[in-house]
UniProtKB/TrEMBL annotation:
SUPFAM superfamilies: UDP-Glycosyltransferase/glycogen phosphorylase. Gene3D superfamilies: Glycogen Phosphorylase B. This is Uncharacterized protein. GO terms for molecular function: glycosyltransferase activity.
Length: 409
């Protein structure tokens, strides 16, 4: 089988890229051919298909005419449509699997594949098809007003950073792809969490959205009894991640427990200046990241938006670490209260403090929850299970599209 993967970044920029590169490796291990489509970038990994990649786009030009042209390509990219069409005609893939394609590649590539009778799979890393600003948040509160496909609330609420201009551009993007039915041409959506599956099924139908959990190779991770008595946050420092609630909780507890913040983001310097008792260690990778995880007592995930299926939680589970996390979105599917970790109400500092102290004061509880987290991740979230489900989906769709009765949309 030939599988064409599309993602706007061809380097490990975030969770969506980690998932995609894992899937490409899994497909190669199963003796399938992998084809890549992305955007040119000096950080890209090597690809023999990079001649088909679209030109790099930043959307920050000072020129008014350039900004208008960029805005149009933000909605529909003729270059991406042309190049993916040429790639499909030259390489003849059996299926197109899209990950993070928004803005630089645009959902127009779905239409291009559909016209060439290629089935399209789209992994839902966020809520973009039903929320133009991705997060289903407005002013820090959960919002679902666009879930039914009407996007006018985006304008009236100025959801994009309070800017009417940015909100209007995202509204135009959403309305355009609704008009040309880009997302309706997706053969199947892959939802890494059941929460995401249910949110998207409301708009696209339950038969079109399937739940395939993300996977992790736990066998590469050596568990350890190391415990340096600190709480560890791993991730982006942005409002929806709930880091401010965590930092306020730490300060309110008079820094009676050690807090390590590993990550970067737009709020790093603000947090660093306002919460000097926390330890900000920046973005960690490789052995430094592994060591930091192994020595932590508790991993905390204080999110305040409907998280999908955070890879940081799977990573913590594979390290046999207990997790304290918000009871929101897809998180409770991974952090099972009293089984693999403890849950607290989002934004509730008192609840968060109590959960953290319960674990920090009880080494036996930490060991029990951490051990069960490792068992669950090995049994339910392995890469082999992920690969089997993915191949089954691919084979089912390619059979349908090769059937003489299959009509081209």
């Amino acid at each position: 089988m030939k599988i064409l993967f599309a993602n706007k970044f061809f380097f490990r920029n975030g969770g969506s890229e980690v998932v995609m590169f894992n899937e490409m490796d899994l497909m190669r291990q199963a003796d399938n051919d992998v084809i890549e489509f992305s955007m040119r970038d000096p950080r890209n990994l090597p690809s023999k298909y990079d001649r088909y990649f679209v030109s790099e786009k930043s959307y920050r030009s000072p020129s008014r005419s350039s900004r208008i042209k960029s805005a149009l390509s933000f909605i529909h990219s003729p270059e991406a449509v042309e190049k993916i069409g040429a790639l499909i005609l030259d390489e003849k893939p059996d299926i197109l699997h899209c990950h993070n394609i928004y803005h630089q590649l645009t959902p127009s590539i779905i239409n291009a594949a559909s016209r060439l009778n290629i089935p399209v799979v789209l992994t839902l890393h966020d809520y973009k098809p039903i929320c133009p600003v991705y997060t289903r948040l407005r002013g820090g509160d959960v919002c679902t007003k666009c879930s039914d496909g009407r996007f006018e609330s985006l304008l009236t609420q100025r959801c994009a950073d309070g800017s009417l201009g940015k909100s209007a551009l995202l509204w135009a993007e959403a309305r355009y792809h609704a008009m040309v039915r880009s997302y309706h041409r997706v053969s199947r959506f892959i939802a890494p969490s059941r929460f995401m599956r249910d949110a998207m099924a409301h708009r696209f139908g339950k038969d079109k959205v399937i739940h395939i959990p993300n996977g992790i190779d736990a066998s590469r991770i050596r568990t350890s009894d190391d415990d340096d008595r600190y709480v560890l946050y791993l991730g982006r420092l942005s409002p929806e991640k709930g880091v401010e609630t965590l930092l306020q909780t730490h300060a309110a507890d008079d820094a009676s427990w050690r807090l390590v913040i590993a990550g970067t983001g737009p709020l790093l310097e603000d947090y660093r200046s306002r919460f000097p008792s926390a330890e900000f260690v920046g973005h960690l990778t490789g052995e430094v990241l592994e060591t930091t995880l192994r020595r932590a007592s508790v991993i905390v995930v204080p999110s305040e938006w409907h998280e999908n299926s955070p890879l940081s939680i799977l990573e913590a589970m594979a390290h046999a670490k207990p997790i304290v996390a918000s009871r929101i979105g897809g998180i409770p599917e991974l952090v099972r209260d009293g089984v693999t970790g403890l849950l607290f109400e989002p934004k509730n500092s008192r609840d968060l403090s109590g959960r953290l102290k319960a674990l920090l004061d009880d080494a036996g509880l930490r060991t029990r929850l951490g051990g069960e987290a490792r068992r669950v991740v090995e049994a339910e979230y392995s890469l082999s299970r992920h690969a089997t489900a993915l191949l089954s989906l691919y084979e089912s769709l390619t059979r349908q599209f090769k059937s003489p009765s299959k009509a081209v949309s």
